[in-house]
Amino acid sequence: MQMAQHFEDISIDDILSVAEREHEAHSRFVQVLCINGIDLVYSYQKTADQGYVVHNYRVHGVKPETHIPSVTKFYLVAFPFENEAHDLFGVQVDDIAIDFKGGFYKVAMDKPMTVISPAQKAAREKAAKLAAAKAAKAAKAVQ
User: What is the rounded CA–CA span in Å between residue 27 and residue 7?
Assistant: First the structure.
């Protein structure tokens, strides 16, 4: 049996409406995946009679100060994923049904999964400088 996957980009404002829609469609909650950057991927699986399709909804560029709504209103089983996002990545998740308030994991440092190597930092700084130079050149060309 082959399982199809679909990816769709959504905004933070769409998180709850997507969760509600998937809940009403009797989809199974699979996970919230955090990716450095920070991107979030919410995954829901259709049931056997719906063809075992996994729908993944990506929220790009979440900043640590940005507040994300909890989907535990629709899927209580999401609470470990949302607590993990908070403890390991610093994502601010509001109104988690079972909120460990930063104590889900015992970690030696704040947001350990956001630590980058010196090489990664240098590459990001270089990319930012190149982007700034490109934007300045484009602005100058417009004048």
Answer: 15
pLDDT digits (tens, 9 = 90+) for 59-70: 998 987 889 999
Please write the tens of the pLDDT for every residue from 69-113: 999 999 999 999 999 999 888 899 999 999 988 778 777 666 655
- Are 34 and 91 within 8 A, CB to CB? yes
Task: Report d(CA 68, CA 21) in Å as an integer.
Answer: 18
Count the residues in the chain.
Answer: 143
Going through the chain in order, the beta strands assigned E by DSSP cover 5-9, 28-35, 39-45, 54-59, 67-69, 92-94
Distances (CA, A) of 130 to 61, 126, 135, 139: 19, 6, 9, 14
